[in-house]
Design brief:
Layout (H helix, E strand, L loop, with lengths): L1 E6 L2 E8 L6 H11 L2 E15 L2 E13 L8 E12 L5 H11 L4 E12 L3 H5 L4 E2 L5 H18 L3 H10 L7 E6 L6 E5 L4 H7 L7 E7 L4 E8 L2 H6 L11 E11 L7 E11 L4 E7 L10 H5 L2 E7 L6 E5 L4 E10 L4 E10 L2 E2 L7 E4 L15 E10 L3 E4 L2 E7 L5 E12 L4 E4 L2 E8 L5 E8 L9 H19 L7 E2 L1
Parallel strand pairs: 12-21, 27-28
Antiparallel strand pairs: 1-2, 2-16, 3-4, 3-7, 4-5, 5-6, 6-8, 8-9, 9-10, 10-11, 12-13, 13-18, 14-17, 15-18, 16-17, 19-20, 20-25, 21-24, 22-25, 23-24, 26-27
Helix pairs in contact: 1-5
């Protein structure tokens, strides 16, 4: 691992790379992350580039091109004058959104600078007249360097990692990203991601939208998405594939082991994931993690779970890539996987991810109840075996069947295991000095269902457990009247 920093007693990677396995992935990532500009440049005048519904006109200026990565130019900086235009698709909701945010019927702006990173054929078009010359000016290099940093902090987006994934996994068509500044709309970005990875992972836009136009708003510590759109061919055909059709792997089973013995300080987690490749030539998998953490007060930087190691089930170490501020990480394989090939990944993670709500001493949750473990794609369904090692005085709880409690190696600790046998889209947990209250609900068909409510001790709060159990019973009966019997083995809260 290289370039690590100490933060709040944890080992936090500024740029985290596992053991080099031949060096291809690390070398590509390092070049993309550095985004160094070469001496090649091109002077252009009235050059028009179209990417789906977006038209970019470079009125006059100079392109400075990045050093080639994996044999091709993958980035550029433009300094000069230009115009950006996107019409709005035939979608009344998107039209209303653009009018509300921009007081306009389309998205148009001039610009004086633009920074690009891409894996499509953009260079074949803008680089036709490229010639070697003097080194790029400091302003151009500064724009390239600042792009990747700002996207990480503002969106949790590691553009270098997304670009590397497109290269290594042979995506066709490739991605296109551009950030513009210096015009009436100030700084804003345009992304066209045919595999929908960034819209899903960083913006929770997951109906198959491939294009985004967005701008960061520092007043709300978040971005305004001006426009999210399907491809033009999708609109023309009237059909589109949902985002999960582009997933690289299925994850049918998780085995999660949590160390909750010091919940005030840290969460340590080992995630074993059964992964089955959905494509031929799979070399790198991106995972989402901690995207529920905020930019405000640098929560995502300070509280994120950071990868400590990555390996296969047989112990083979894997390269992994994770930056501070990133809402995820990526894992690379030494040999590409074939379609249908299955492997088990073992990822060790650690961070200050636990939350003590309202300073209620003794009760702890993950800071983000749905993004505390690594996931690929949006709400993929999996089964779970969850083991929680915790203090004997606490009770740990999650979904599924309680398998049992066993000693954890010391007299003060205990090991609690749960199992979720029906595939579910997400899972969460809690730990603390709970008291368990139980009842049994009956559905409309007469089927019995165990109810469990984990409550605070009576000396910590006046909670009417009987009332809550009665309401849980009502919820089960209402559900079963509408949809049939509750499909899981226990209803717990």
């Amino acid at each position: 691992m290289v370039a690590v920093a100490s933060l709040l007693g944890l080992i936090v990677p500024a740029f985290s790379v596992g053991r080099a396995l031949g060096g291809q992935s690390s070398a590509i990532y390092s070049q993309l992350r550095t985004f160094s500009l070469a001496s090649d440049s091109a002077t252009v005048e009235n050059l028009t580039l179209q990417r789906d519904r977006v038209v970019i006109t470079f009125v006059q200026g100079i392109f400075y091109f990045a050093v080639p990565v994996a044999g091709k130019v993958r980035g550029a900086v433009f300094v000069g004058t230009g115009n950006f235009h996107s019409d709005v698709p035939p979608d009344e909701a998107e039209r209303a959104n653009v009018r509300r945010l921009l007081k306009a019927d389309d998205i148009s702006s001039d610009f004086k600078t633009a920074v690009f990173q891409f894996t499509d054929d953009t260079y074949d078009f803008i680089g036709k007249s490229a010639k070697p010359g003097a080194a790029a000016p400091p302003q151009a290099q500064r724009l390239a360097t600042e792009l990747l940093k700002s996207l990480l902090e503002e969106e949790g987006l590691n553009l270098a990692s997304r670009t590397m994934e497109s290269i290594l996994d042979g995506e066709n068509p490739g991605i296109f990203f551009a950030q513009f500044d210096g015009g009436k709309r100030q700084r804003f970005s345009f992304l066209f991601d045919p595999q929908t990875r960034v819209p899903v992972a960083n913006f929770e836009i997951n109906a198959g939208e491939k294009g985004l136009i967005f701008a960061y708003d520092s007043d709300i510590y978040s971005s305004d998405v001006w426009l999210a759109f399907f491809s033009k061919t999708d609109y023309e055909s009237g059909r589109t594939a949902y985002s999960d059709m582009f997933n690289l792997v299925d994850t049918p089973k998780y085995q999660l082991e949590l160390d909750l013995r010091e919940p005030k300080k840290t969460l340590s987690l080992v995630a074993k994931m059964d992964c089955t490749s959905r494509i031929d030539g799979l070399q790198l998998i991106p995972f989402s993690l901690g995207e529920g953490l905020a930019t405000y007060e640098a929560e995502r930087r300070k509280k994120q779970l950071f990868v400590q190691s990555a390996k296969l089930a047989d112990g083979t170490p894997l390269e992994y890539f994770q930056e501070q501020w990133e809402s995820g990480f990526s894992v690379a394989f030494p040999t590409a996987l074939k379609k249908g090939q299955s492997v088990t990944l073992e990822i060790a993670l650690r961070g200050d991810f636990m939350l003590n709500p309202d300073n209620n001493q003794g009760v702890y949750f993950p800071r983000s109840t749905t993004s505390w473990y690594p996931r690929h794609g949006y709400l993929s369904r999996s089964t779970f075996d969850v083991v929680m090692v915790h203090r004997k005085r606490d009770k740990a709880v999650t979904m599924g069947i309680l398998v049992g409690d066993t000693p954890a190696g010391t007299k003060d600790d205990i090991r609690t295991e749960f199992r979720v046998e029906q595939p579910v889209a997400l899972i969460t947990f809690a730990v603390g000095d709970y008291e368990i209250h139980k009842d049994t609900a009956k559905s409309e068909s007469g089927a019995a269902l165990p109810l469990e409510f984990y409550s605070l001790p009576s000396d910590r709060g006046a909670i009417k457990e009987d009332f809550i159990l009665a309401e849980m019973n009502n919820a089960v009966r209402y559900f079963s009247a509408l949809f049939g019997d509750y499909p899981y083995t226990v209803f717990r809260g």
